[in-house]
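Schema walk-through. Below, the input block comes first and the output block second. Nothing else is stored per chain. Lengths vary across the set, and this one has 561 residues.
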Amino acid sequence: MLFIGIDVGGTFTDAVLLDRGCVRASAKVQTKEDLLSSLLEALDKAMKGVSGDLVERVVLSTTMITNLIVEKKYDPVGLLLIPGPGLSHQHYQFNTGTYIIPGAMDYRGREIIPLRREQMENAIMDLADDGYKNVAVVGKFSSRNNRHEKEVAARLRWNYPDCQVEMGHQVAGQLNFPRRVVSTMLTCATREKYEYFVDSVITALSQRGIDAPVFILKADGGTLPLPCSTRVPIETIFSGPAASTLGVQALTPPGETSVVVDIGGTTTDLALILSGSPLLASKGAAIDDYLTHVRALAVKSVPVGGDSIVERVGKEIIIYSERLGPPYCQGGPMPTPTDALRVLGLTRLGDKDRAREAMDSLGAPLGMSPGEAANKVCNLVIDTISAEIQLMFTQWEQEPAYRVWEVLEKRKERPSTVVGVGGGAAGFISQIAATLGAYPVIPPYAPVANAIGAAVALPTLEVTLRVDTEQGYYSIEEEGFQEALDDANFTEQQALDLASKWLGKRADKYGLNQRIEDVEIIRREVFNMVRNWVTTGKIYDIHVQTPRGILGHIGAGGEIK
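--- output ---
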C-alpha cells in the first residue's frame, strides 16, 4: 500500500511516501507563491520511480491558513449581525466593522421581529461605504431558521455583486452566537486562499496521474474529503498543528506523554500528548482569544519561527511576528533566527558569510560581535516559545481530559518531555527543554514530521443528521439528502442509529474499510417542539464521525509498528 502525506507550510512544502508502512522517501522544498510548482516538485522528489496509479490514498495538511490568521494577512471582513433582543450591542465587538440589523428569530426558529428593510439597506450601505468587500452575515438563531440571513445576503449581493458573502448557518449548525460569528468571519477571510490551495492540489495530483482518494486533516486530527472541505474551510484552520501532533504521536513510542513543539519558518505550533493521545480542546479552537465552533486539538500557533524578522530598535533587538521571505543567508531581505543559528553552527542552511553579515548589522551598533548577536537572537526565540508553553500549560490543565489523566496517573505534575519537530527544532529544542526543566527529544524524520502525521492519519468521515419529527422528515447535510420520516415517535437512539447507518454508507462511498461500531459523537442535541403547552414533536441534531487515530508508530527504521 502506498500512501502519500503532504504538508504545505508557509516556508516549506514537505511530502512523504509510505510503502507498506515504511517511510520509503521524503522531500522538503521551498513553498513558492506559485503553489502548484511547489507541490509538483515535492511530489516528484518523494515519488521518484513510482507510478501515480499505485498510490492508494493522499492526506494533506497545511499551515498556510493558520499563518494567514496569525499574521493577519487577510482582507478585513465586515459583519452584518442580526442578534435580536438580549445583550447590549456593545457585547458584539470583534475588532472589525460591525453593523447591526434589527430583526429576530426565536430559539424555535419562529420570526418574532421582522427584518426592517430600511435599516437593512442602511447597514449594507454603511458597510460598503467603509470599503468592505468580504462580509459575514450572521443571525442569532439562524441554525433554527436561516430566512433572515438569506434575505440580507441576497440584498447585499444584489446591491454589490462583487462582495464575497458567507452566512452563519452554512458555517456552523450549533447554537452559541458569538462563536458562530467568529467562525463565519474567519471562513470569509480565508475562503479565497483555501480554494486556491485546493485547486492547486487537485491540479498537481492530476498532472502526476494520481487518482486516489484525497483527504485533508481537520483541526481535531480527523479528516475531510478534499473536495467537500471547501464547504467548511475553517475546519482546516489548525490542520498544520494537528499534523505535527499526529506526526509526534507516530514517531514516539506508544503511550508517551509529551509537549509537542513544531518550529517552522513562520510559526511555532504547540500541542500536548497525554499517554499517547492528543489532548482535545473541550471548548473548540480559540483564535485571537475568541472561541470558535471548530472542534480542535488543544493547540496554539505562536507567531515566531526560523524566518521571523529580527530588527534592532534603539538599543534593543526585537523579533517580529512577520515573515518577509527566506533568511538573509538564503538571499532574503532581513536578518532572521535562522541566520543566528547559521552563525552558531546549529544549522547548515544558507551562506555562512551572509549570516554573519546579518548578525553584524544587528550587533555592531550595540558593541556585539556576530556571535554575541546570534546568541541574543536565539535566546529571544527560546524565551518567547518557553513563555508561551508555560501559558499553554495553564490552559491545558483546565481541560477535563487533562484532569482525568492526572487522576489515572495518580500524579499532579507536568509532562517532563519536550519533543521538537520541524526545520528549527535542532537549533532550539534543547534550550527550550532546559528552560522548562524537561528532557529534549528530536525523533527521526523530525524535519518532515507534519507530512508523516498526515500520511499516517486514519481518514475519517462525518455525518450531520437533522430530524424534525413534527414536520416528518430527516436530512443528511453532507449528502444534500432529505427524506420523509414515517415514525412520529422517532427516538434519540433511532437518530443515532440512522446517523451511524449513513456514516457506513459514506465510508463505502469513499472506499474506507473502517469499522464504525465505535462512532465518535461530536454533537447530539434534542429540542422539544411545544405548541399550546403540548409537545408536538422533536428536533434531533446529531453529528458523528468515524474514530480518529493513526495507522501505527514509525520506528527509527521508518517502519510502522
